[in-house]
Write a structure and sequence with these properties.
This protein is an alpha+beta fold and about 190 residues long. The chain has one domain (about 5-190): 3-Layer(aba) Sandwich (Aminopeptidase), CATH 3.40.630. About 30% of the residues lie in helices and about 25% in strands. The protein is built from five helices and eight strands, in the order ββαααβββαβαββ. It has helices spanning about 20-25, 30-35, 45-60, 120-135, 150-155; strands spanning about 5, 10, 65-70, 75-85, 100-110, 140-145, 160-165, 175-180. The strands form two sheets. It has a five-stranded antiparallel β-sheet with strand order 1-2-3-4-5, sandwiched between helices. It has a three-stranded antiparallel β-sheet with strand order 6-8-7, covered by helices on one side. Strand 1 and strand 2 form a beta hairpin. The protein starts with a strand and ends in a 15-residue tail after the last strand. The structure holds coenzyme A. Coenzyme A binds next to helix 2, strand 5, helix 4 and helix 5. Coenzyme A (COA) binds near residues 148 and 157.
Length: about 190
Amino acid sequence: MKVLETERLILRPFTMEDLQDVHREVFSDPEVCHFYCGKTRTPEETAEWLAYRITEWKYSRFGRLAVVLKDTQEFTGFVGLEAYPNSFSRLPDDPQPRHNEVEVELSFAFGKRYWGKGYASEASRAMIRYAFDDLNMRRLVGGAAVENERSRKLQERLGFKVSLNAHPDWPGYVTVLDNGTQAAVAGAVHSAS
Ligand SMILES: CC(C)(COP(=O)(O)OP(=O)(O)OC[C@H]1O[C@@H](n2cnc3c(N)ncnc32)[C@H](O)[C@@H]1OP(=O)(O)O)[C@@H](O)C(=O)NCCC(=O)NCCS
């Protein structure tokens, strides 16, 4: 089932047939995993993750989508939306909120051989447009480790405002993209089905 389409990419729900590709490109690669999930996973752990992501999208139309090349259907990585109770990011304009908000972050990880080609930017723009235009979300709030230059640069390209995290216990960046920031969605082609 096709969900989102860009000039070079299709973003579609995962199937269990993606297991080998997801494991090879993302969860078995220490460099990809380092900033995404800490350490590599076993094939069984990847299978569990995949089953969860399939079910998540099936029932909610929210979560992660596989990103494949339009021409060859080759799996490159994934991009998605993740809701989380935010106890670790503090925004510069609200460094000590009384309560933790549930926020949604843009999540992404691509196989190393697909870095440096603009695929993550292209796929992210389509997912952001889906979040803002279809789901009518107010904003996306994420982050990045200071050393994760690629993630910071990607989020800057997408129009996220990048600030140092004001939480005293969590170094790194906090990133915010408000709905209505046109830079975020410029260039994306969108087709939902
Ligand atoms: C974060 C991550 C997705 C960024 O991937 P990326 O390929 O650097 O990001 P983009 O898709 O925006 O590609 C931009 C690069 O492609 C280049 N590029 C080449 N062809 C391009 C094209 N047609 N269009 C746009 N950019 C293109 C750009 O010049 C830029 O190059 P640069 O890195 O030398 O500046 C990737 O590094 C990754 O998967 N990391 C591991 C997981 C991770 O850290 N997740 C985030 C945790 S916070």
